[in-house]
Amino acid sequence: MNEKTVTVTMKGEPLNLTGDYVPAGSRAPTCRLTDGELKELVFDPQGQGNILLITVPSLDTSVCSKEAQRLSREIEKLGDEISAVLISMDLPFAQKRWSEAAGIDNIRLLSDHRLADFGRSYGILIEDLRLLARSLWVIDGVGTIRYKQLVGEVTDEPDYDQALAAIEEVLRE
């Protein structure tokens, strides 16, 4: 187990993250998630093409909703060169309700609500709140994490420019 104590804050209050620390350059872990039909699936990024992996605490918050909508627009510009997957602890019903209301259909929504396997596998589970930390990951076609952005303050948006630059770099190769 690759443990490292990582902390983020929520409104300035420190929160420890639980799970394995996974740095950029590592192989993206395989884990179990729940899809929109409440079926368990194995999420394995290896061989799945380039992926922008987005994690948010809850789509029912204004910051998470704004982030997902912004990234949806950015992904739309890139065509089919990269796919987007958003993972949260929200129930699949809530994810579906949000995506329909927001008109988002180019981001695959998966839930970690049952097992928190993703949160632990990627080291971004805020166990005390049973939420995922806000993060962005760029994973290349062979399953290597090429970029990782863990947002230090959970209520802040990510650095979009930095993440988009990382996506562009992977797409140029």
Structural write-up:
- This protein is an alpha+beta fold and 173 residues long.
- It has a single domain (18-172), classed as 3-Layer(aba) Sandwich (Glutaredoxin), CATH 3.40.30.
- Helices cover 27% and strands 28% of the residues.
- It contains 4 helices and 11 strands; from the N terminus they run E-E-E-E-E-H-E-H-E-H-E-E-E-E-H.
- It is globular.
- The N and C termini lie far apart (32 Å).
Q: First CA to last CA: what distance?
A: 32 Å
What is the fourth-level CATH superfamily?
Glutaredoxin
Order of SSEs: EEEEEHEHEHEEEEH
- How large a portion of the residues is in β-strands, by DSSP E? 25-35%
Unreliable residue runs: none
Compute the number of structural domains.
1
Spatial shape: globular
**How do the strands line up in the largest sheet?**
7-6-5-10-11
Tell me the helix content. Answer: 25-40%
In short:
The chain has helices spanning 62-78, 92-102, 117-122, 160-172; strands spanning 6-10, 13-17, 31-34, 40-43, 51-55, 83-88, 107-111, 125-126, 131-132, 135-139, 145-150. The chain has 173 residues and is an alpha+beta fold.
